[in-house]
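The data are passed on as follows:
___
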Amino acid sequence: MFRQGLPVDYLNYMGLANSDVDSQQRTVFLERTMALMRRLMEQYLPTDAACDQLGKQFMHDSLPPFLTEGEKSCSIHGHGERWDPAGNVVRDHTEMEPDTMVKLIRKGCLRLITEDDVVRVYHNIENARVYHGREPQYIEISAELAPAVELLLHSYPEYVAVDSLPAETVEERLEIATILYDKGLLVTGEPLQNVHVDDTSSDEGEEEGDS
């Protein structure tokens, strides 16, 4: 197709001198040229992949988003597990539920990319305040979880229930939501409730001591 010769008389109706001449031959030639160019781009110019690489670079270049107090209270930035040595327990442990409402903390905070045959979520949440102070930050996820990230991107700024994320099982929906939340990329509709977690190893030690 691309190796076919040009029409024998194309010089008679193409070129600057003929640019204002309205003829069927010229119209057919231009339409054929545009169709070939579109096909060439579709087959040999991966536009989406090229744009993703620019998006990846932007993630590395940009500063992490500034968060309001409300966003902090409904994200990992205002929570986070910590060990309480006095009580011998883990404090501020939270868990996602299927009905938890979530959204991206910012639409421009991540880029979903396929490279090296793996799916990666590049983000700027952990970027340093110094330009390129850290290497590009990303999370690797399974290809099955990629549609869930796409839905979060497309639904922003609206909240969606974790159970509505496109994945085969509830466990997978909770998995991708928890991964993104723990990385600081998700904000919930309401602050997650803390779950009290006892140190089972210390309990076992006390039982052994009592015996």
User: Anything to note?
Assistant: Strands lie at 82-84, 89-94, 101-104, 110-115, 118-123, 137-141, 160-161, 186-188, 194-198.
